Batch of 4 targets.
Target 1
Amino acid sequence: MPRTPVAQVDDGLLDGEENIRRDEAALARGQPGVRVARISAPALSIGVGQNSNVPSARRARALGLPVIRRTTGGTGVLLGDGDVVWSIVLPRDDPRVGPDFVHAYGRLGLGVVHTLASFGVQAEWGPALGLSEEFCFLGSRGCALTSGGRALGGAAQHATRSALLHHGVVPLTLDRQRLEAVFGLAPAISEPKLTTLLELVPTVNPISFAARLGDLIVDALDSA
């Protein structure tokens, strides 16, 4: 099947629930597209296979955080103010999906790596770090986006018979105390094993970063 041009949308600021709703609407349409947005308020996002009363969800609610369920896999992700989220939707018969899409985090996430490189940050998609069964970025499944050995982001997927949704997040900042409380992490893990966009690029403008991210994801897909 010939590759259809990829449309791009920048949705600006959205809360986590609305962001997920828009991803699922795009998946249902099944048209090639890239979408970026920035998170407007903290929330815990849990994977489709997780029970709504998993320990991280109970701890998040006790802290007054909304808990939202996405339809992609993986475990919990603590979304924060200004975090940059991105998504790719492609028809299943688009050659850019490929039979290896379940393991294609590096290929589908190449635009994220290129964007970080344009801001002077070396990053890569690599094996899961296997340090937490509750926090997705440090989980034991899939791949992690890392820089200098520290987790910087993650991604997840939802495949239907007709289309694939591949989406992820790069945190702008990180409330380590809140993250440790929600996921039961020790500071000895969260301090040396996690980083954020603002830590790596102190002068970054998240609006500009999101715009460039959308452009470079599309460029990477068009070049694939």
Target 2
Amino acid sequence: MNRLDFIKISEWIKPESKILDLGCADGALIKFLKENKKTNGYGVEIDSRNIEHGMKNKINILQMNLEDGLSVFDDQFFDTVILSQTLQAMVNIEKIMDEMKRVGKNIIVSFPNFGYWRNRVQVLGGKMPKSRELPHEWYNTPNIHLCTIDDFEDLCHKKNVKIIDQLFLTNNKPIKFFTNFRSSIAIFRLTK
């Protein structure tokens, strides 16, 4: 299945640009961008199993803890910095947003929308949400800062980050209206 989030992210990236994918897992997005946009860049990942898999696919992945910052990279070094499905697992979200603004000219962030109606129903039923986008149990989840689309827009305003474009998805299909209620994934393209 083609991942619409990968396709949309690639539309937002210029060919042959330098990218940095933070929390890149096995490097699937980097590989997709390299094949489709001839990009150059790196992934940053903490899990050694993901790094091994990415290296087998000839992806440049650095083992780093994002919570320590991105001091190994110069200011404005990358054309685009991507934080795909990792925001909710960060302890210090404001710090990583600042670092992404520092090292990248453009920023792409995607995250599971906690405001999605199915998540709301599970909370109303007395349970923490569990879904394809949020697959873990409450006691073993890496997600510590879940947010809604509205929450993220508020953070962008607070951090003085401009939203250039956005896409909202459920089951790999675009959602056009009542997005905070109807979409399970949010993707934002940002700039300073």
Target 3
Amino acid sequence: MQNELLEQYKLYVEMADRIIQRRHATNRFYISLLTGLGGLYLLLYKTRDYPNALLWVIITAVISLLWWINIYYYRQLNSGKFKVIFEMEQHLPFACYDREWEILGRGKHNRLYLNLSKVESYIPFTLIILCLTYIGYRMWFI
């Protein structure tokens, strides 16, 4: 019984790691997409084929919102996975992830543990705010 639990535990920890890898790949995708979109806009602007800036800002805001939703989804998924890992560790000789979480103050002190999911969500959130500010400026002043 203990060997089966250990094998399940190993598999589940590996699955949690794969979720983290998928989150990083998703972030790279959105960064590449937004960089390419910005580059295309600048290229069109430079060739005097002026694209509608408001449309590009709206597209950027929508992509940023989708990115933020993905980060939030992965944060929830990882949270659930680690709750299951902590439960499994109660039946193992040593609960390494639970102990690590304890050492890091269970995420309650930024000095001990800075939640990467929260930090990485600032990027698309900031882009959304900038886009909405530009849209508001265009609606009120132009």
Target 4
Amino acid sequence: MKYLYAYPELCTGCRECSIACSLTKFGECNPKKAAINIVRDEFERFEYPIICMQCEDAQCQKFCPQNAYGKEDEVIKWDKNKCIKCRFCVTVCPYSAITVMDGEIIKCDLCGGDPKCVKVCSTNAIRYEEETHELADKRKTLAKKLLGKE
């Protein structure tokens, strides 16, 4: 299975990935309408992309009262037709990878296996790679860091 992997040490905070995402999904260059967000840590002086981790035990899927989230080919996908826009998924996502803009739920679906964010990232800070033991450990380490558990 291929996943998105973030390499925060390479991220410059340019937001090319967010713009590509919003352009692909909504037809407009608006980083606020992207399924990938860049977070700035003013104290540590770095920026890094927040991406959906496609969790094994996905909280969005587990707690959605309408079962609007399903797993298809190991990708957690949101079903607009089942969603009542209660935004509970936004609340329970431990990585803040699901957002809402103009009443629209925004969550990464890996662009059907061809993520546009990867194609435009000039520093290679976001990669779409086949999971290995090393990459799985990296993803879990980053997840713990984001959750403040490391």
